[in-house]
Amino acid sequence: MDFPIVEFPWFGNGNIVALIAIIHVLISHGVAIGATAIVVSTEYYAMQTKNAKLDQLAKQLTKWIVIITTTVGAMTGVGIWLSTMVIQPDSIGSLLRIFFWAWVTEWVIFIGEVVLLLIYYYTWEKWKKGKEKQKHLNIGITLAVFSWLTMAIITGILAAKLTPGRWVETLSFWNAFFNPTYLPSLAFRTFLAVTLAISLFTIFVRLFVKDKDVRLPLFRIFSIWGAISLPATFIFGIWYLKSIPEQAAKLIVWSTGLPEQTFNVLNLIAFALIVVFLIWLVIRPKKLPAVLALAMFISAIGFIGEFEVVRESIRKPYIIYNYMYVNGITAAKAEAMNRDGYLAHSTIAKVKTITEENKIEAGREIYEGQCLACHTIDGWRSKRALANRLQGWPQKSIEAFIPSMHQVRPMMPPFVGTKEEVEALAAYLYKVVNEQN
Amino acid sequence: MHILQLAIPPDFPLPIPGNLSLLEFLIVLTFILHIVFVNFTLSFATGAVALEGAGIVKKSKRLDDMARICSFHASIHKSIAVVLGVAPLLIVSVIYTQYFYTSTLLIGKAWISIIVLLITAFLLLYVYKFSWEKWENKKGLHFFVGLVASAILLFIPLIFIVNIVSMLYPEKWSSANGFFHSLFYYPQIWQRYAHFVLASLAAGGFYMYFYFAWKQKKQPLSDVEQSLKMGGVKVTFWITLLQLLFGSLLLISFRRDIVLLFMGDDLLLTVLLLVSILLTIVLCGLLYIVTKKDTQNVFYASVICFVLIVALMGWMRHEVRESYLQPYMDEHPRTLDVQKENVQPIK
Questions:
Q1: Which ipTM value was assigned to this complex?
Q2: Which residues cross the membrane (chain B) (predicted)?
Q3: What is the average pLDDT across A41-66?
């Protein structure tokens, strides 16, 4: 516990980051990457078929890409970082030390992406004919490559949190970046982005694009892309699942908070839905029901929410696998803390030696440092609210539970600290739990 | 407090990724680029609202047209400002981790609120820009949207200023109590804020002069554009004169030994300060000439002056931080080489 603690008692600290991340993934994957690829291919198709109206629609879509990505997209991207600084300072701080130059590169490419996007949109009318149109299209292709590159970089960092691979031994940047799940995860995300774009945009096309000369060719483009991206998402998704650590894979169903049956049924329905949707798009694009498009839209958002929550959650008890626990404790720290005490090695702890008088205060500090990352006292997620989980437990049982908590629940990190600290934590928890109930 | 000790944490065991001097150079460079665009955004947004308000009161179409041009420029520069802000923020958190993370977490909720504030302000700025004609008959509402966006934009810098000022005062951390308390708790906050807001107005005015002088080379300016150009010069002239006062106020708000560094204790800092004051006076002179006789040479000279002043300010700002933190950094060293014994896998 080296930095001041910021607590979101009701919402839960982890949920803040998750909320911003979900919005960001929807926009960065679905809009910036997936939709760009589709828009550029639409422009190409319009050029080939000399369909001026379709060309204009591609331009319209680009305008929305500009507005969404430069406001909510860009700000939630920065926002994930700003919020993790507050909520997981040890983790993001360490990742920055490892991946600094990757982030710098990411930043440069992102600037390139924004510039290309603006050029692409604002030269649409200017570069309209013959060779110029080809030039415009080339800008679009470059843009699509750039937006994919930003993902190719950030995926290295994200994947390393789950599978840092040989990095933990070698501490080499390249080992961390090209880690065991890098390729599967990049391949999966690439096609997921396209599938996502189709699922998100169809409903708007269905509702607002009335002209059949435009809607039908656009749906055709969607279905061609979908025919590639859906099986690819599925296959690479399985590859990704196979390459994550066994301990993590076991936590997938649990992470969603659903019973296994419901989880399986829901995911099967979603999968069946998208297959039906795509087949419909190919066979009867004229009569695509708006309800089906809407169902796709909603399940796409649901899926991304699930994916993000699961991806963050299966890493438990680690924040950087095999290196740092969710509460910022590393092997080296744990060793020192078990020897000299957790509080003794916590920069901001006010209590350093525990006495009868400051016991509760000490317990509170330990709770904030070691448990708050995942738990609340009485937040809305009742499974994580200790007032709920510890209701009716005698103080002695809490005391007995703490040293073995990582064995009882493998998603929890081991407690670190001395015997007195266990007692202080138990005394504090017993007190607040009984005050709540 | 049981034991009075500084809450400066040990640095992470993973090393700072790169040559420190290079990173310091980059942080100064990228911060200058970032802050200049922030300056532009802030002055055009507030300038647009002020001009529109004046236009409503005086029933002047001309002022309204001027306001509209300002709002257009605000919305372009805001995106650049945010994007350019990422680099200095990356570097500050990597090379001053022990101070910057603590100061950020001390105002954690205000810090996270930046996300919501910025998205809101940006969307409002879009509305403000795009509804200029549509809401011709709802001037009050239109003005209000601009006002709210500007108010948010004026508020956000306070969060950043509290953060980077508080990181300089580890001995004050233990009694700090959140963002609003910190606003009045740490020294230099309001001096910095005043210096920054004035700099924004001056930079915005200068931009107008620069932009239209450049445009004038290709085509004659309209009446409204000419007013913006000369108005910009006047604003920059008067504000820059004021800055001589407010800059001095900021300087004397520093800790005594830091002030003395600028007053002869440190040769480099003293020279930097003197040169920047000199250049400021020269710039004012040049701008004064522009109001009388507007020539190409004066234009180029003033641009050079302006760039140099901004560069010097950015450099001095960095040196101030280094001087403040020096004593702490000696006590709590940064990790420059990997501490292998502290980076062990958990098995």
A1: 0.90
A2: 25-58, 79-101, 107-128, 140-169, 193-214, 235-255, 267-290, 297-316
A3: 95
Residue A64 CB partners (closer than 8 Å, separation 6+): A31
* Helix pair angle (B296-331, B189-216), 10° resolution: 150
Cβ neighbours, 10 Å, residue B219: 8
Residue pair A96/B90 in contact (Cβ under 8 Å)? The answer is yes
| Cis bond upstream, residue A4 (ω within 30) | no
Terminal C-alpha separation, chain A: 28
Domain count, chain A: 2
pLDDT tens digits along A345-372: 999 999 999 999 999 999 999 999 999 9
Cα–Cα distance measured from residue B272 to residue B261, given in angstroms and rounded to the nearest whole number: 11
* CATH code for the domain in which residue A19 is found: 1.20.1630.10
Q: Are residues A157 and A194 in the same domain?
A: yes
How many residues in chain B?
A: 347
Residue-level pLDDT at B4: 46
Kindly state whether residues A268 and A185 are assigned to the same domain.
yes
Q: What is the pLDDT of residues B284-293, one digit of tens each?
A: 999 999 988 8
Q: What is the DSSP letter of A326?
A: T
pLDDT, mean over chain A: 93
pLDDT in tens, A175-205: 999 999 999 999 999 999 999 999 999 999 9
Please answer yes or no on whether B108 and A114 come within 8 Å at the CB atom: no
**B179-215 pLDDT, tens per residue?**
999 999 999 999 999 999 999 999 999 999 999 999 9
Q: What is the DSSP string of B13-40?
A: SSPPSS-HHHHHHHHHHHHHHHHHHHHH
Pair A338, A225 in one domain: no
> Is the Cβ–Cβ distance between A139 and A120 less than 8 Å?
yes
For chain B, percent of residues with pLDDT exceeding 70: 98
- Among residues B227, B309, B223, B323, which one has the least CA distance to residue B268? B323
Which of B231, B258, B307, B285 has the alpha carbon at shortest distance from B70? B231
Measured CA to CA, the distance from residue A80 to residue A87 in angstroms comes to: 10
Residues A361 and A295 in one domain: no
Whether A104 has its CB under 8 Å from any CB of chain B: the answer is yes
CA distance readout (Å), A18 to A79, A80, A109, A249, B242: 11, 9, 25, 20, 47
Percent of all residues in chain A with a pLDDT value above 70, rounded to a whole number: 100
Position with higher pLDDT, A383 vs A406? A406
Distance CA A288, CA B11 (A): 59
Choose the final residue of a domain: A300, A323, A346.
Answer: A323
Closest C-alpha to B236, from B278, B203, B189: B203
Compute the nearest-CA separation of A169 from chain B (Å): 7
Inter-chain residue contact B14 with A98, CB threshold 8 Å = yes
| 303-332 in chain A: CB under 8 A from chain B | 318, 322-325, 330-332
CATH number for the domain spanning A364: value is: 1.10.760.10
Closest chain A CA to residue B3: A350
Phi/psi region, residue A321 (left: phi>0; alpha: psi -120 to 50; beta: rest), is beta
